[in-house]
C-alpha cells in the first residue's frame, strides 16, 4: 500500500485562483484586518503569510500591531474600531496574546459577521449546532482537504487528539456533523494508544511533537497532522506510515496552507454576504 498524500499546498494554490476570480467580481475589495500583540517572531511570520495570501487573491489587508504591554481594555477598543469599520470584512486576532490579556474576552468581542477565523463562542456554538457560521480556520481547512480528496467520513470512527477551543473541539464537532463517530483524546488520556489503534481517521491536534506514535495507528487509517514543530516535525510520528495507511498529510505542506486558505475563503464569503 502506498498512502494517498493529502497535498494541502497544491490544493491551496488551486483554490486561490478560484478565490481571485470571485474577488474580481466584487465592486469593493474585501479587507482582512490582522491584529498582532507583541513581537513574537513566529506570530509575526504567521500574520505576514496571511497578509501575503490576501494579496495573491486580490484582497486588501490591514495590519494592526500593538505593543507587548497592551491591556485587555486596549485590545478590546481596537477590536471595537474594526467591528465598526465598514471596509473591514474579517478580523483575525493572532493567537497567542500576552499573558496579561483575557484572550477569550477579546476573541468573543469580534463581531460574528467578521469572525472569519472562527474563534468566537457564539460562532462555535452555531457551527456545532449545524447553523451558518464561520468555522475555526484549521479544522475548516482540514474538512476542505478531506472533501477534495474524496475521503469517506460517514460512519467512520475518528479520533481527535487535542481539545483546544480553536482546533481540537471544533474539529470534533465538524467531524460529528459529517456523520463520523468521534472520540476526543488529549495528552492526559490514559489509554491513548488503544484509542488511536481503533481509529479509522486520526487527527493530531495536541501541539506536542510526535506525541502520537506511528505504531499505534492501524493499517489503512487516514492520518491528518495539524501540528508543526521545529525540524519539520508534526504531532504524529511518520516513520513507516506511508506504506501502511490509506492517506496522510505531509508536514509541512498539508494542513498549514489549508488553514490560511480557509481564512481567506471565509473573509471573501463575509464580503459577499455584506454585498
TrEMBL record:
- Record SUPFAM superfamilies: Aminoacid dehydrogenase-like, N-terminal domain, NAD(P)-binding Rossmann-fold domains
The pathway where this protein functions is: One-carbon metabolism; tetrahydrofolate interconversion
Q: Name one GO biological process term.
A: L-histidine biosynthetic process
GO cellular component term of the entry, any: cytosol
Domain Tetrahydrofolate dehydrogenase/cyclohydrolase NAD(P)-binding: from-to ranges: 136-272
- Residues engaged in binding NADP(+): 162-164
Give the matching Pfam families.
THF_DHG_CYH, THF_DHG_CYH_C
Kindly state which reaction or reactions the protein catalyses: (6R)-5,10-methylene-5,6,7,8-tetrahydrofolate + NADP(+) = (6R)-5,10-methenyltetrahydrofolate + NADPH; (6R)-5,10-methenyltetrahydrofolate + H2O = (6R)-10-formyltetrahydrofolate + H(+)
Could you list this entry's UniProt keywords, alphabetically sorted: Amino-acid biosynthesis, Histidine biosynthesis, Hydrolase, Methionine biosynthesis, Multifunctional enzyme, NADP, One-carbon metabolism, Oxidoreductase, Purine biosynthesis
GO terms assigned for molecular function = methenyltetrahydrofolate cyclohydrolase activity; methylenetetrahydrofolate dehydrogenase (NADP+) activity
InterPro entries in the cross-refs: Aminoacid_DH-like_N_sf, NAD(P)-bd_dom_sf, THF_DH/CycHdrlase, THF_DH/CycHdrlase_cat_dom, THF_DH/CycHdrlase_CS, THF_DH/CycHdrlase_NAD-bd_dom
Query: Which PANTHER family does this chain map to?
Result: C-1-TETRAHYDROFOLATE SYNTHASE, CYTOPLASMIC (PTHR48099:SF5), C-1-TETRAHYDROFOLATE SYNTHASE, CYTOPLASMIC-RELATED (PTHR48099)
Summarize the protein's role. Catalyzes the oxidation of 5,10-methylenetetrahydrofolate to 5,10-methenyltetrahydrofolate and then the hydrolysis of 5,10-methenyltetrahydrofolate to 10-formyltetrahydrofolate.
Please give the family membership noted in the entry: Belongs to the tetrahydrofolate dehydrogenase/cyclohydrolase family.
Self-association state and partner proteins as the record states: Homodimer.
What is the protein named? Bifunctional protein FolD
Amino acid at each position: 500500500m502506498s498512502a494517498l498524500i493529502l497535498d494541502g499546498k497544491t490544493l491551496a494554490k488551486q483554490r486561490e485562483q478560484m478565490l481571485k476570480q470571485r474577488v474580481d467580481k466584487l465592486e469593493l475589495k474585501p479587507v482582512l484586518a490582522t491584529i498582532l500583540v507583541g513581537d513574537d517572531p513566529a506570530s509575526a511570520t504567521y500574520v505576514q503569510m496571511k497578509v501575503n495570501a490576501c494579496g495573491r487573491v486580490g484582497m486588501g489587508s490591514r495590519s494592526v500591531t500593538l505593543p507587548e504591554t497592551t491591556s485587555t481594555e486596549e485590545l478590546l477598543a481596537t477590536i471595537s474600531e474594526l467591528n465598526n469599520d465598514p471596509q473591514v470584512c474579517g478580523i483575525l486576532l493572532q493567537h497567542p496574546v500576552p499573558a496579561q490579556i483575557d484572550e477569550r474576552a477579546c476573541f468573543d468581542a469580534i463581531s460574528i459577521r467578521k469572525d472569519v477565523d472562527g474563534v468566537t463562542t457564539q460562532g462555535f456554538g452555531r457551527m456545532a449546532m449545524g447553523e451558518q457560521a464561520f468555522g475555526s480556520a484549521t479544522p475548516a481547512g482540514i474538512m476542505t482537504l478531506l472533501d477534495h480528496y474524496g475521503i469517506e467520513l460517514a460512519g467512520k470512527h475518528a479520533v481527535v487528539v487535542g481539545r483546544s477551543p480553536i482546533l481540537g473541539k471544533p474539529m470534533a464537532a465538524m467531524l460529528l456533523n459529517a456523520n463520523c463517530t468521534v472520540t476526543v483524546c488529549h495528552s492526559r488520556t490514559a489509554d491513548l494508544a488503544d484509542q488511536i489503534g481503533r481509529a479509522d481517521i486520526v487527527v493530531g491536534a495536541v501541539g506536542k511533537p510526535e506525541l502520537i506514535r506511528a505504531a499505534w495507528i492501524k493499517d489503512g487509517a487516514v492520518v491528518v497532522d495539524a501540528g508543526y514543530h521545529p525540524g519539520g516535525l508534526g504531532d504524529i510520528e511518520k516513520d513507516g506510515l506511508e506504506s501502511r495507511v490509506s492517506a496522510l498529510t505531509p508536514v509541512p505542506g498539508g494542513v498549514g496552507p489549508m488553514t490560511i486558505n480557509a481564512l481567506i475563503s471565509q473573509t471573501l464569503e463575509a464580503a459577499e454576504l455584506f454585498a
